[in-house]
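Hey, quick one: can you model this chain's 3D structure?
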Amino acid sequence: MSDIEKRTDSIAQIRAVIDDWVGAMREKDAPRVLAHGTENCLVYSLAPPLKETAAGAEGLEQWFSTWKGSLGYRLQELEIAADGDVAFATALTHLSGEKLDGEKPALWFRQTLGLRHTEEGWKIAHQHESVPFYMDGSFKAAIDLDPRSEIDWQAASRPPMAGVIAYLNVRDANATAEFYSLAFGAKEVERRYAEDGKRLIHCHLTINGGALMLNDPFPEFGYAWKPQEGVVLHLVVDDADLWWKRAVAAGAEVTMPLEVAFWGDYYGQLRDPFGISWAIVAPVKKD
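Sure thing. Here's the predicted structure for all 287 residues.
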């Protein structure tokens, strides 16, 4: 058998091992998962600590027990390279499912497997999982990325934005964006959906020349919905009557009539159907 044939045969064997390992993860079969690893398989997982050795099934069984039913666990863009008794496999992995408390996590992460050929066949000797984090100073894990997205997050064409931008967590970001289009003439710049295809992880609108961002609640990641309190979004416009009538016609509730305020501005407040307060402001026109 030539070297090329040997490598091809090894890759086929490794692919079969990984396929069965993934199947065991889906079925939450800890002994079967660990059977594909070496005795001292080194694991760099998403969870602390920085490194651990997969020595037994107890920890894996405990983690599996926090999920209802089977796991959603699949690999995408799997690539395998083998040479002699050593091989590496890389993939993007999607994990999803339902926790006992009802939360439904869904995320993509990067995975590398180091394999070694033993007397029992190919075994996983090293497992490395990671997610990127946002380089904006927040150090927030970028668990909202999707390999199917066409957005270039490193593109130089994404310029910095001036001013302070409101980012609203609303119950139904899709419906909110549609209402803002009718009530305030909002223009959509970008809309990105979560893995469920329903909730928005990001929606960028422009209203009156400024930016407004929206997203749906994601309680499974610690971002539950809370009522907005103590915040009013101000629209300073030339024609307050036009903006006011359009918003009211769309369904905004009047909470403070539009009139000349004691400080001299033409001013009124509205509440939209999603609980957000707005002020429409214009300078008083002098005769």
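One thing worth noting: The domain at 166-283 is CATH 3.10.180.10 (2,3-Dihydroxybiphenyl 1,2-Dioxygenase; domain 1).
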